[in-house]
Amino acid sequence: MSVKKVMDQFSIKGCVSIVTGGGQGLGKQMAIALAEAGSNIVITSRRVETALVTQKIIELEGVRCSVIQADVRLENDVLRMVDSILQEFGKIDILFNNAGVWRGDDAEKVTTEDWREVIDVNLTGPFIVSREVGKIMLQQGKGSIVNIASMSGIIVNTPQNQCAYNASKGGLIMLTKSMAAEWAKRGVRVNAICPGYMRTEMSEDRYLQNDPAIQRWFDMTPMGRSGTADELKGIAVFLASDASSFVTGSTFLIDGGYTAW
Ligand SMILES: NC(=O)c1ccc[n+]([C@@H]2O[C@H](COP(=O)([O-])OP(=O)(O)OC[C@H]3O[C@@H](n4cnc5c(N)ncnc54)[C@H](O)[C@@H]3O)[C@@H](O)[C@H]2O)c1
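# nicotinamide-adenine-dinucleotide complex -> structure
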């Protein structure tokens, strides 16, 4: 059996990758990374305007890039999205469940509406998308699913309280392990990336307003800073590609050392 050279193991040339909510933030940089490694890209987004700008950047890599309007909470949107990708590309190799929302408040004040919104987008959405895309990958006998969870699925953040977000990400880590175990012998791998504090549109307001929480986050992070979206590019391509062919059900912390203290 010939063994591929290491950089060839990272190639995903000719693959088809979906990145949900990939128009901005972490999803945008991971979509660019997958394109740089040779994959065609489908960005799904609730609002297509931002995604259309990202599409232009991705096409500069010489791959195909489609934008599909879809809300991950809505089963009909997800079914339409999968149909449309199969019609255009004929297969789905890689799925990044990246779309997510953050809401924070003290547990005794969290409204049921906010709780449901966070669980719907961050946990039920990835379940629906993975179930539908998983069916295709199982038929193909191959696929890689990467869930963007968070260190909040493992630790309780401070000083901001955010029980719904933490619970949604903890659930996503367990969903990752459950689907990974069920599908491992059928060629579909499922893993999770758990970022620490990353500076993106999701947290930008706090940075602009010099929120004192930011200094607290830095003080609690051995590297003394937040991460940038491009610092997920390496792990994204690793998990998408055959470089991680014996990796499934795993959770990768990318947190500047936060969980080491
Ligand atoms: N920024 C951080 O510090 C951080 C840390 C850990 C984990 N994460 C996770 O990483 C992922 C990306 O976060 P980000 O910082 O880039 O945030 P972001 O707000 O910049 O991007 C989130 C994307 O998800 C999309 N989205 C939201 N609800 C959706 C829905 N119902 N259907 C489809 N798309 C939807 C948004 O339109 C946006 O494009 C999220 O799952 C987030 O929880 C972020």
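# post-check
The first strand starts at residue 16 and ends at 20.
Residues 6-248 form a domain with the Rossmann fold fold (CATH 3.40.50.720).
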